[in-house]
Amino acid sequence: MENEYPGLWRLWFKNQCVTDGHSPYDGKKWLMVGGKRDHDWIVTRNALQEIEPDHLIIVALPGRRIGRIGKVLSNKSKDEDWDPLYEGDSDWERGYMGRRITVHWELENAPDNPDQVIQLPERVNLGRGTLHRVHDNPDKFRKFIANPANWVDLAGLFGYEWALSDFIALYPNRLRDGLKAYPDAKKIREKIFKDRSRVDVLLRDENKNGEPVIVECKRESPDVEAVRQLKHYINRLKDETDEKVSGILVHGGARTVDKKVWQEAKKSPHVEIFQYKLDVEFTPSLMSP
Fold it and tell me: What is the model's pTM?
């Protein structure tokens, strides 16, 4: 629930635990907003009862990412063991995230920094729900975790794809040497085809006699459909201008790209794939003279 509780994974990492977000029971009723227990709680409750020391837990994060693998040390998920990570408020006085399962994180072949997590390829599916059994061999995930090319920053992404597009339109040379803004400024960010589809960024390549370059931006790891979408734009622009057109897909996922995506990109028309990383610095402001 990283989206609902920003920083939750860091707290898990620091406190050597994972937690369940369902509310406790006060002896009379479930202390839950809305007053109901849903199907997810029934599945979660049954799974919690099965967890024992030496079991393994994989932390699932938004965007098909995982934190680490943890070896269970103790299961303290009963209401009488309630130990919240977050202070209470008017809704839940007893606090939030109080069902803890203590773990020992596997870090020997993993990032030391909790701000770095692991991007899984498109073909890997962890399933849905708060807590459920994963039937794959743990070594499958250990292999992904051990490969630094799969490591991504937990929060190092542009909030929206248009923000990334704006940056590339302003600084095309940062993407690749020789790229420059399209001569018609309006077309850089507003090129619309007859079928009403719209390119993210349209550039020129000085190293290839001013050849048009279409840039498609994705916040996270690209899929096959993203590559096909870009190729559709390339073919549309070729038909309109009768020029040779190339394409670059820019994404914020892991440096390694799913094999199916890579194979699709290599088909004609060829598409290049670039990963971006966002680096933010903060310095104290000074008062003007």
Answer: 0.70
Output phi, psi for 43, to 5 deg: -65, -45
Domain-wise residue ranges, the chain: 8-153, 161-275
Q: What is the pLDDT of residues 180-216, one digit of tens each?
A: 987 765 565 667 787 778 888 999 999 998 899 999 9
List of residues 6+ apart from 178 with CB closer than 8 A = 205, 206, 207, 208
Q: Which CATH class is domain 8-153?
A: alpha beta
Output the pLDDT for position 122.
76
How many CA atoms lie less than 13 Å away from 177 in the CB half-sphere? 0
Neighbours of 14 (CB within 10 A): 11
Q: At what angle do helices 259-266 and 224-241 cross, to 10 degrees?
A: 10
Domain 161-275: which CATH number of 3.60.9.10, 3.40.1350.10, 3.40.50.10540, 1.10.8.640: 3.40.1350.10
Q: From CA 58, how far away is CA 56, in angstroms rounded?
A: 7
Q: What is the pLDDT of residue 33?
A: 42
